[in-house]
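Researcher: I'm comparing several assemblies side by side, and this is the next one on my list. It has 662 residues spread over two chains. Same procedure as the others: predict the full complex and return the structure.
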Amino acid sequence: MKKFVNDPKQFVPEMLKGIALANPTTLKYVPEYNLIMRADIPKDNKVSIMQGSGSGHEPAHVMIVGRGMLDAACPGDVFSAPAADYVYNTSKLVASKKGVLHLINNYTGDKMSFDMGKEMAEADGIEIKIVVVNDDVAVKDSTWTVGRRGVAGNFFVIKAVGAAAEKGASLDDLVKLGERVVAVTRTMGMALTGCTPPAKGTPIFTLAEDEMEMGIGIHGEPGRKRVKMAKANAIVDELLEAVASDLPYKSGDDVALMINGMGGTPISELYLLYGYAHEQVTKRGMKIKRNYVGEYCTSLEMAGFSLTLVKLDPELEGLLAAPAEIAIRTF
Amino acid sequence: MKKFVNDPKQFVPEMLKGIALANPTTLKYVPEYNLIMRADIPKDNKVSIMQGSGSGHEPAHVMIVGRGMLDAACPGDVFSAPAADYVYNTSKLVASKKGVLHLINNYTGDKMSFDMGKEMAEADGIEIKIVVVNDDVAVKDSTWTVGRRGVAGNFFVIKAVGAAAEKGASLDDLVKLGERVVAVTRTMGMALTGCTPPAKGTPIFTLAEDEMEMGIGIHGEPGRKRVKMAKANAIVDELLEAVASDLPYKSGDDVALMINGMGGTPISELYLLYGYAHEQVTKRGMKIKRNYVGEYCTSLEMAGFSLTLVKLDPELEGLLAAPAEIAIRTF
């Protein structure tokens, strides 16, 4: 296993410790509940927003905790849902007079943990509402999901509700906004290689040297088809057609376009993909008002990418442009 | 070859086009000379700063063009120095009344191109001075270098002189500052895997499943030794000892600490490495005033990382903290 690991069981805690040490004034690591939270959550004036999911998708979600984004993230082990008890205790730690918003990517395990954690927290008098993200157009049901999976489009939901919460939006407003973002966001991904969870020590799946998987899930779940490698532009064409025809996105739409790396694809290739995707989206008559190129929701060291479109209105565009602070910085 | 490529010959131009399309108001792509430059270089008030090197190290250097950083970057093909003619023409395009600073990572090919390009530009009356970066402690001479190689520490030189240039520093001041940063910056890297330049189509070197290379160069040049895989902390210990003992960095020093990913290592692992490195640097009595975790100078999709220390003084710390804008954004 070619990974930087000490003890596979400590992979996630050691990563969380590193995040906290790199952000000593803004973030707190709470080892008891395996969580990262803002050091200064303005609990009285703002709905608190939290998300948990399996680890291995970084920066989602433990590295996008901060002002204008998540107030806390409670990850599970790699590709495993967080324990319900951690969801409960995270909810207690961030509990606000204005309520708590649970963002959940649509996986059965995550939903189960959050359902139980929510019930336990509600018994303590904490008001909680949920928004479920399911932006992946690749497959209807999947190995770990009933209905569509939640993948990189999740970022836009967090960014929008995070910005609105900072401006004082109510819990009900945030649920409406979150659902509105989910309704206009679509993603599809693909992989060139598998990836190796530290505790497993071997790849979760393998692809031959001339193969790729279209519509891959972020835990290596099967996508639409396994096919021969193609040129970069042909891959973009296929993902874009699947995504654009789903909502559908139409000529005249203002959109955000994201090319999200899966973890092992260098940023040079992501910008090459972005350049062609930008041209094709523009050719379809859409206006790209915001763009995102980099890693937002990964699968460990998997080589691959996903393409996301978000249909924008002026309010949503403003929320995506609002200032925010997160754990990872470029300089 | 598991890469997103159309035509290997167009890999770099297609990437540059993507960078420009993603940054339409701040950056310009000039296809004739294969360069990325700021759209609004304040030529009359500021020394212009440029760097060129082989491609394949992104974000260095084409993605760190922007206010407070580079004014232009003229890359060569993957792992190839830029043509002297491109260095010349880039120098002409950014030419400022206050002069032009050439930053060069210490590789024989890059130095040769910049020497020639500088001479050609000087014949046109452009004033040019150079700073050579050579932060890699791994080996004295190497496959492509006489003397030490320039690697990820390069970022700190760009950030510091970029900030000082925005404040109006003269060309002579910037040379002094750049050399001062080089003098206090040390790096060493290592690799778990090789990488594949698009035009070559096969890995530039391979490592067995249980092997790693300590002191690797950013073009896969041999390092100090090829050894059995070790645990993450042991690898950090070895790199830190090599780096810290070189200057040496001493108890009581204020430092910046960088964990730089080589391209194929997920950010989860980089933060795990950072956490332990932070503890060990602190245990040595140094105070970490600034930290950097992510990709700064990569080798395509190589799995691996480098560790950099910079000894800070209050002026340098302020320059590193100054605002800047670059092509790649997190949100």
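Model: For your comparison table: The mean pLDDT of chain B is 96.
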